[in-house]
Prior knowledge:
This protein is α/β, with parallel strands linked by helices. Helix content is 41%, strand content 25%. The chain has one domain (2-79, 115-241): Rossmann fold (3-Layer(aba) Sandwich). Helix 2 crosses helix 3 (104-130) and helix 3 (104-130) crosses helix 4 (146-155). It is globular.
Amino acid sequence: xxxxxxxxxDDGVLEREFTLDEFPGIxxxxxxxxxxxxxxLLGHPGGLHKMYPRLAARxxxxxxxxxxxxxxxxxxxxxxxxxxxxxxxxxxxxxxxEAGEPVDEIVDRLVLPLVEKVVPEWRITMDAxxxxxxxxxxxxxxxxxxxxxxxxxxxxxRIAAAVMFAGSFVPRIMFEEARxxxxxxxxxxxxxxxxxxxxxxxxxxxxxxxxxxxxxANMGGHTGVPRFEGDDGNRFFAxxxx
Length: 242
């Protein structure tokens, strides 16, 4: 891990950009710590620069709870090399949704390769971050592409809890993986999400194998998640990461 820049934000949070294995990321740590901090991994749909204001706000809220927070750029997004296959799958998905056609095969082409590539990158990132003296775990995962969260929850024992946003398509084959998820979950669902299938999201929640799982459903579209859900998410992590 190579830190490429750092700045102290006005609330004392230390923000450091880094590169690791040729992909970029950002780490935020609280302004003052008496012990190594738990870590929250911030998922997003891709595009660090575009998503930065929202990611930084989420990170600063984490820091207020005493957590470090980190994110990495997704493959094929931001300044990372584009994938012609993924770009074609996105175009095919838009066309199929507009035409009301089945999308399962297209979702597989788009999402499964992304999961296969980015989950190992997240695990490498965890290795590097946990080697820093200011970070001690445990680890939570929050937001982003829900299929990535599912795979991480299954394969990564260092993740103790997750807040997942049911706002992206999940390949049907990954419903079986969801049955293997055992960590505490808080799942957010926008009831009128124009880009997601509500019944599929409810079926996925039902499939999760966690003994502790909570669903928060709010009225509104994809970008209308109420601000108070962020506070609830931080309280959820406070119960499971401290």
